[in-house]
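Write out the bound-state structure for alpha-D-galactopyranose.
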Amino acid sequence: MKTLLKLYNRPTVLLCIAVCMFLLLNKVNAQQQLVVETSNNALVLQQDTARHMHMVYLGKKLNNNKSYTQIQSQYQQGTDYSGSLDAAYTAAGTTNLAEPAITVVHADGNRSLDLRYVSHKLERIDDNIVQLSVELQDPVYAFRVTLYYKAYVKEDVIEQWTSISHKEKGSVVLEKYASANLYLKAGSYYLTQYHGDWAKEMQPETAPVTHGIKTLDSKLGTRANLFQPSVFMISLNKTATEDDGDVLYGALEYSGNFRTDIELDHLNNLKILSGMNNYASPYTLTPGETFVTPSFVYLFSSSGKGNASRKLHRWARNYKIVDGHGTRLTLLNNWEATYFDFNENKLAGLIRDTRKLGVDLFLLDDGWFANKYPRNGDVAGLGDWQENKQKLPNGIGALVTEATNTGVKFGIWIEPEMVNPKSELYEKHPDWVIKQPSRAEYYFRNQLVLDLANPKVQDFVFGVIDTLLRKNPALAYLKWDCNAVIYNAHSSYLKNQSHFYIEYMRGLYNVLARVRAKYATLPMMLCSGGGGRVDYAALQYFTEYWPSDNTDPLERIFIQWEYSYFYPAISSSNHVTDWGKQPIKFRTDVAMMGKLGFDIVVSHLSEKELAYCQQAIKNYNQYKNVIWQGDQYRLSDPRTNEVAAVSYVNERRDTAVVFNYLVSNRYEAGSKLPVILKGLDPAKKYRVEEINLMPGTTSALGANTIYSGDFLMNIGLNPLVNSGRSSVVLVLTAQP
Ligand code: GLA
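---
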C-alpha cells in the first residue's frame, strides 16, 4: 500500500483500489461493465442482456468511474443491425456483418460462433500491473475464448491477447484468430502506417481512414517487416502532434506474418483487429488444446505522440527488452571495413583499432566460417559454422584471446536460421530446408530458410550458439541476423502444412528462450538484413536491434526518428560508417542518439578525425545514461524543418543532451528560429555547453551561458546550425 501511494497520488490509488474491490466483489456492476483503468486511461467493456461483451470505451480516464455507464447513450449514430459492431471479440457466422476477429469450423463442420460472457477475473499482479481476463463461451458448442487485458498502470500500456480452446468431439479449425479487437469512436480517424524495403525502413504515411477495411500485413514468414512493420498509430479527430491530440499506438508482438484490419463501419466507428496473419494458416485445434495468440500492445495518449512514445519507451525498458536498465557495449564492427575479405592479421589490426578508438568491443561480422564451401561471399557457406581454416587458422578462440589481451571485448555475427544451398549443411540435411518438394528452389540473397518447425533444427540452431559460447566463454556479444524471407513455404517435418508459419515462429521463440535461459543477459543484436525483424516479441530476447543497413546519417536522422515513436534509444544500434558524404562529426553525432558503434577503417581517419572520435566516445560514455534512460523529446521534425532536433532529459531533469542537425541544402538553411526545449524544470537554471567539437574549433554559442528552464521551454535556444555547423550537440546541466 505504501509503495502504491508512493507511485501514484492518494486519490488515484484509492480510486483504483475501489474499482478493483468493486469489480472483484461484483461479477459485473449494475450496468454490466468491466473497467480497466491505468493512470490516465480507461478501457470499458459492457455486457448486454444476452451476455454478449461489447467494447464501449477506450480513452481518457473519467474522474468518476460510474460515469462510464453514461457514455453509450451519448452516441446517436444510427442502427447497428447486427448488434455486434462493437463486439469485444467479433465472432463470425452468426449475426456479424463486419470483419471478424475469429472464424471457426466446428468439429461437425458448422461455421457459426456465438461468444457469451461466462466469468471474469481482475487481478492485481503487482504494484503496477492489473490483468483482466474475460471468459466467453458458445452456448451451443463447447468452445471457449478468454480475452486477456494486461494493463501497465503507470505507463498506460495495455497488452491484449486471446486464448482459444474447446471440448468438441473432434478437431476444430480456426480460420482467423486475432489477438485483439478494439472499437473506437471519433469524428474522424487518421492512420499513420509504415512501409519500406532494404535500406528504406520506416517510411511513414499518414492518411484519413475511409470507409471499408484497410489491412496492414506481412506474408514474408521471416524478415517479416521488410516491406511493412506492424507498428501504427491512429489519431482521433485530427492528426496528433508531439504534444497535442488523441492518438492510439499499436503494435503486434510477433516476428512472423501479422495482420491488422482497420475497418471504418457505417456508423463511422473504427474497429481494429490485430493478430497473426491467417494467410495460408487455418489452425487445427484438437480437443483440450489451447491456442494462445501473441500479444497486441497498445497505448492511448490524449496529449499527443511525444507522451505516447515516452510511456512506451519506459514500458519497453521496464518490461520487454533484455537488460532495459543495464548497460550496452560501444563497438567497432568490421562489416563495411572488410566485408568478407579478412584474415587473422587484419583482424588483429582491427582489434587494436578498437582499443585505439576507445570503444568496448570488436564485432566480427559475416565471413568467418565454412571450409568446404568457404564463406567468401554471400553465395556459399551459410550453415557451416566452423571457423574458416584459411582465414582463421587459430580459430575464434585466438581472436577472443587477442581481444582480451588488447583490453577489449569480442563479439560475433551469426545467421543460424539460414542456409546457402552451397553448404555442407544443405548436403547433409536437405530435409531441414524450407522448400516445396517438387518445385524449383527460389532464393533470397542466395539462401534458404531452415525449418524451425522441426525440433531437430531447433536443436541445431541452439547448438550453433551454445557451442560458440561454450567454446569461447569470453564471447561478449552476438549479432543475430536473418536475411531471407520464406518462399515456397513447406515443411517436410510437419504433417499439417497450414500450421507451418505458426510453428516456425514457435520454433524460433523456443530457441531464443533456450538461449536466454542459459545466457540470460548476453548482449545480442537483433538484425534482419537491416530492420526486417524489429518487434516486441523478438526484443524480449535481445538487448538491441539494427534499424537499417542504411547508415547514411542524413537518412538515419529520418529512420531513427520514426523508430523512436515506438522503440527506446537504448535499443537502437547506430553505427558510424562511410555511407553518406557528411563529415565524421555529423555521422558520429547521429549515431550517438542510441547505442553507439563504428564500422569504419580507423586507419583512414585523419589525426584530427581520430581525436574527435576518441573525445566523442568519452562524451558518449559520460552522457549515455541520459540518452538510454532519459525521456526523449522530438523537438524539430526533419520532414518539416531545415533543422532536426531531438533531446533526452534525465529523470531528475538536471541533465539534457540536445542533438541538432541540418537536414536541408538550401540557401542559408539553418536554425533561423530557436529550438523550443521540453521536459526541463522551469525553475532550474541550466548551463549550456556544446560537446563533440572538432579539435581546433570552438563553439559559436560561447562558453557557459546560463538560461532558466522557463526561458528554454518558452523562448528556446538557437543551436546556431548552418552549413558550417551542420551538427551541434549540446549538454544542459542544471546549476546548483
Ligand atoms: C546483413 C546485415 C549487415 C551485415 C550483413 C552480413 O545484410 O544487415 O549488417 O551483417 O548481413 O552479410
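---
The chain has three domains: 85-319, 331-415+449-482+493-628, 632-734.
Residues 1-28 have pLDDT under 50 and may be disordered.
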